[in-house]
Request: fold
Amino acid sequence: MERGQTALAPDVGGTADGTSSQVQLMEETAVLVEKLPRDLDKALKGKLQKYFQSKRSGGGECQLISHRDSTRKAIVKFTSKQVRDSVLAKGEHVIEVSSDEKVEVHVTAFTASPATPAEPGASIKDEDLSTSANNKK
Reply:
């Protein structure tokens, strides 16, 4: 695995026989977060997850399941479609990186491309971090 790349959580991918129910569930409950700071370290990843778990973001229980430094994108999976929809409805998302630094990130519905790995533990490539063409700001 390359530096700055996070593997998918074991419960996220589809099955080896091509079943896509888990991928579909992920599309219904995950968001793509863009415009993240470069070199997102462990502490900042924790702040990102904590932000999306807070009422400030409109979020709730979630898991950061993928991150790529090279694209400055991450995928955050929520426990329900309603929570994901609440996060998307909020619009503007500003994450406090430090007491004197805030970062505005762009959040859209996650859509798995046909190339998204289906095997549990497989890693996501840059081109797999795509957004839905139907999603509006």
